[in-house]
Amino acid sequence: MARIVTRKEAEGRRFRLRVFAGMFDFLATIGSLILIFACVALLASLVTWIRNDAKTTFASIEYSITSALIMPEDEQTPQTTQAPQL
User: Fold this and answer.
1) What ranges in the chain are assigned the alpha helix state H?
2) Greatest CA separation found in the chain?
3) Tens-place pLDDT, residues 14-31
């Protein structure tokens, strides 16, 4: 048989559910803010890493292009000294 719930009990139950829902919303908001800060920190770290890596990568590419385009000067071959003939 169904239990009869008074108006005061129903209001008390509704109040507890509202408090629980409010606490859950608060905790979800705090958790979301922490997650957002973590994502921003990860993105900042990624951007820093990309900048440093780009400098290294482009330096090696620039060196390769420069060394391929600039003709080295003709080096004089060292003359071998011959021993005097007797």
Assistant:
1) 7-69
2) 133
3) 999 999 999 999 999 999
N-terminal to C-terminal alpha carbon distance within the chain: 133
**What contacts 5, CB < 8 A, 6 or more positions away?**
13
8-state DSSP, 38: H
Whole-number Å distance between alpha carbons of 80 and 5: 114
Measured from the Cβ of residue 34, the count of other Cβ atoms closer than 10 Å reads 10
Retrieve residue 36's tokens. 């957002």
Dihedral of the alpha carbons of 65, 66, 71, 75, in degrees to the nearest 10: -120
For the full predicted model, state whether its pTM sits above 0.90.
no
Query: Residue with structure tokens 């919303």?
Result: 25
